[in-house]
Amino acid sequence: MAVNDLIANIHSGHKRLLSLVDGADLAQPSVLPSWSRLHVLVHIANLAAAFTRQAEYALAGRSIEVYDGGAPGRAAAIEAGAARPAGEVVRGLAGATRELERVWSTVGSADWRRPVRYRDGDLAGTVLAYWRELEIHTSDLDLGYRPRDWPQELCAHLLEFLAGRLPEGAVLSGSPRERAVWLAGRAPCPVELAPWP
Prior knowledge:
There is one protein chain. The chain is mainly α. The protein folds into 2 domains: 3-145, Up-down Bundle (Four Helix Bundle (Hemerythrin (Met), subunit A)), CATH 1.20.120.450; 147-197, no CATH class. 56% of the residues lie in helices and 0% in strands. It has helices spanning 3-21, 37-59, 70-82, 86-105, 123-140, 152-161, 176-183. Helix 1 (3-21) packs antiparallel against helix 4 and helix 2 (37-59) runs parallel beside helix 4. The mean pLDDT is 97.
C-alpha cells in the first residue's frame, strides 16, 4: 500500500480510536495480559511520539533510537503513563497523534526513503509499522473494534510480516483473516508460534 494511502487510513484510525475511548472506562483491562486500556493508549501515544521523532531526525539527516533507554525505557514509560488520570492520558494521545500527522504532512515524496533507526529501515517503514500497531492495539481495547474488523490489506500484510512466527514446515489452514489473527496472537493458534519479529 502506498504511503499516502496508509496515512489516510491512519487519519481515519485516529478518529475512530478517539471516538471509542470517549467516555469509556479506561481503567478496565484490555485483552492484553496485565495491560489496562490505559496501558494500550499510552503505548500508542508513545509510539506516535517516537515515530514523530524518527521523522524529525530523518528529515534533518540524522538518526536516533526509537525509545530513550531502549526496551526497558519503553516499558517503564508505559507503566508510568498508565498511572496517570484517564483524561490526561487521552489528551496526551490526542496531542501525540496530531503531532505525528503534522510532521508526516511535511515529508516530501523523496524523503520517505530517508534512513531511520527503527529496524534500520526507512521513514516509509515507520508509517507501515504505525498503521499495523494502531489497528491491532485499537482492537486490543475491547471497545467494539475487533480483529474481525481489520481491513483486508492489514491481514495480507500480517500474513507476510509474521510468517516467520510459524515453525518450519507448519501450515495454517483458515481464511486470511483467521490466519492473521492467529499469527498476531489475538486468538489461540493451532501451532506454537515463535516470538513477534
